[in-house]
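TODO from last week: model Biopolymer transporter ExbD.
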Amino acid sequence: MARRRQTPTVQSGSVADIAFLLLIFFLVTTIIETEEGLDRLLPRKEAQTPEVPINDRNILEISINNQNELLVDEVRIGLEDLRLTTIAFLDNGGVSKGENGHCSYCQGLRSPESSDNPQEAVISLNTGRESSYGVYIAVQNELVAAYNALRDREALKTFGESYTAMSSEYRNPQTPQERREFLRARIDQIQDLFPMKLIEANTK
């Protein structure tokens, strides 16, 4: 009688354990990239929003047409000129209740055809239906950079520390709570000097 041939078997009892360990390893070591959005605080919805009259000289009209061309007050400019144009508008200091009837901390030309003061200055951004998202983000970055440049100037003059550095430290989760409260007070003080009034709606 012939002997029955035995088929060799593979010990697979530890395969599940190894697979589980590999899964944990990749979950722990893998970095998932996330896209950052725009840092914007949306206003609360109100039943009736009061209409606030805005003087035309206090509005900086910025438009991106369907050909991705940038127009400021209906004049075409390059993206590289947008930051300085915005700074000049915000920092104009034409009329205010400060010293000598003008914004006491503004260093602009005080043109009667530009913004009265930073508290009244409004930036209106309108985009065409076919304008690219990349150009829109680039414009947003330049506008934020213009505000940060003015806020940095006043923060350095007032506190000896830049606004962007304080904001970065404030957003750091490792910053102690007491330090965060201290920074929050300073950040609010600087933001009151140059409040960001950026709207994406028809202001006319």
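Done. The two ends are 103 Å apart (CA to CA).
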